[in-house]
Specification:
Oligomer: single chain
Order of helices and strands: HHEHHHEHHEEHEHEH
Strand content: 5-15%
Largest sheet: 6 strands, parallel
């Protein structure tokens, strides 16, 4: 037998007469913090995925509570997650399947703060939707300061000889794609690189991506998976510059 007692009618009546909590009267920082607990998913990168109906759809119902509540909610949801520019799930690689950010209305795209470009799927035959055009609405992403680039494979590696079209095909494709994306993002400041362990930082693909990023005058950062940092030569060069400035030589 359970030791829990059923609530009495009087306690239920008193609960029903309590005034609603004035959530919208809270400071905006506190509202955002509370909403982040409700809206942020374990998958911090959002993409077209069959699992979205389990992980995200129910949370989005909060957008419908009221106009003001929905405004707060969608800003938290879209600002706290990274959205993938081009889909990678096999179910959504068809020619007529538009990327997720192309499906968002402009006011949702304006709330985004970071995007991800994932390179590797379709390295021998890139998916048909993987091209930059007006349909993506990247110009609407006025709050995006960080672009995360994750490299799954580098087909220029000798391991892929005999399977690739040619050694430079995917390197050229990826470099051009990154350049097109950066040119369309009006407030982009930082490009963060990360990769699987098989990808070499000084390989042909990463070298091209870094060159394109430097030419665009973007700050380069490193992701947590590989923990790539500045090379020893870079560190020594920086140390030398600091020493010269300290001595007043520059």
């Amino acid at each position: 037998m359970s030791n829990l007692e059923e609530p009495s009618e009087s306690s239920l009546d008193s609960a029903q007469t309590l005034p609603p909590f004035p959530f919208l009267d809270l400071p905006s920082e506190l509202r955002s913090k509370i909403l982040s607990y409700l809206l942020c998913t374990d998958r911090r990168t959002i993409d077209l995925d069959p699992a979205n109906h389990r992980t995200s759809t129910a949370r989005l119902h909060l957008f419908l509570v009221s106009k003001r509540f929905g405004y707060d909610a969608y800003h938290v949801f879209y600002a706290r997650h990274t959205f993938r520019i081009f889909q990678t799930h096999g179910r959504f690689l068809g020619k007529r399947t538009e990327p997720l950010i192309a499906r968002l209305p402009p006011y949702y795209r304006r709330a985004l703060t970071s995007l991800e470009l994932r390179l590797g799927p379709g390295w021998s035959d890139p998916p048909k939707p993987w091209y930059v055009s007006d349909r993506l609405g990247l110009e609407d992403c006025t709050a995006v300061r960080t672009l995360r680039v994750f490299v799954e494979v580098d087909p220029s590696s000798p391991v892929f000889k005999g399977f690739r079209l040619n050694r430079h095909f995917f390197t050229n494709f990826s470099g051009a794609l990154l350049q097109d994306v950066m040119e369309r993002l009006p407030a982009l400041e930082t490009v963060e690189f990360d990769a699987y362990p098989s990808v070499e930082r000084d390989g042909a693909l990463m070298t091209r991506l870094l060159e394109v990023t430097k030419q665009a005058d973007m700050r380069i950062a490193w992701g947590l998976q590989r923990e790539w940092g500045d090379s020893l030569a870079d560190e020594l060069e920086k140390a030398g510059l600091k020493a010269r400035k300290a001595r007043g030589l520059d």
